[in-house]
Amino acid sequence: LEADEDLLKRCQAGDAEALTQLVRRYEDRVFRLACRVTGDAALAEEAAVEAFARIWAKARQWRGQSRAGTWIYQVVLRTALDTQRGQRRWWQRWGRSIRPDVPDVRPGPEETSIATTDQERRSRLLAEALRQLPEADRVVVHLYYFERLGLAEIADVMGVSRDALKMRLARARDRLRGLLKGFNDSV
Amino acid sequence: MTPFEHSDDERLSAFIRQASIPPVPDDLAGRVRRRVRSRRRRAVLGAAYVAAGFVGMALWSWPRPSHPAESATVQLAEVRELFAAPPVASLEILTRQQDAYLELLKQLQKE
Lengths: 187, 111
Description:
- The complex is a heterodimer of chains A (about 190) and B (about 110).
- Chain A is mostly helical and about 190 residues long.
- Helices cover about 70% and strands about 0% of the residues of chain A.
- Chain A contains 10 helices and no strands.
- Chain A is globular and about 55 Å long.
- The N and C termini of chain A lie far apart (about 35 Å).
- Chain B is mainly alpha-helical.
- The longest helix of chain B is centred in the middle third of the chain and has 34 residues, at about 30-60.
- The interface of A and B includes residues 52 and 186 of A.
């Protein structure tokens, strides 16, 4: 299996096949992070596509100072935040609303009413609790608990010091616990 | 390392991993390829428009000769004539003429 670093170097040389391989390798992680940041599947899809396009366009800016995966996460996080913030501007909302090519895969009301099993209820409650966290806290929780990245790598991705990250993680965890009081037995 | 208990972290991690995330949309790679291609096309078109604009501006502001090249040589030849003193008799000639006229009148009167 070719290393991420080699794929990025091939992207720098303009090899489109390397980009396709990177997309296939990272699409799950990129889409999950974008989903966590934006809280919306359609927006997350847009952010993921844009993130990969930026990775292609900015590949030359990566000079091996960090792991390829860390750099990719940095680009994805910035793109997802841009997409989320752009969504708050009314003219961009309007621009997107007239483009029907992004399917909305969020569960509809029928699916919601069917979601009665305990696992689904937990899942929805957790998703709701995560949505209530501030953007940065949500990203930290996702990268640490879901993607299981190390603190050093998350600090690199978010551009904060390790100590600041630890504090943010502790704060986010406390908030999450407060929001999930009903499930204290599980958390 | 972390301010929390390790077991707590593990439980929270397991719990968080239960949160449903929609599946990755189909053909993400295809969409990325299309976007990259359309960006490249747009960049090429933009560069072409800018280049065409520059060429147009250059052609527009290029100094155009108002006469054919042949007449330019004629103009050069006429320079002396153009900048020469006007064909008006000098004061000395006029004085002589007047003197001559007076002399003629005097002779006519005598006759």
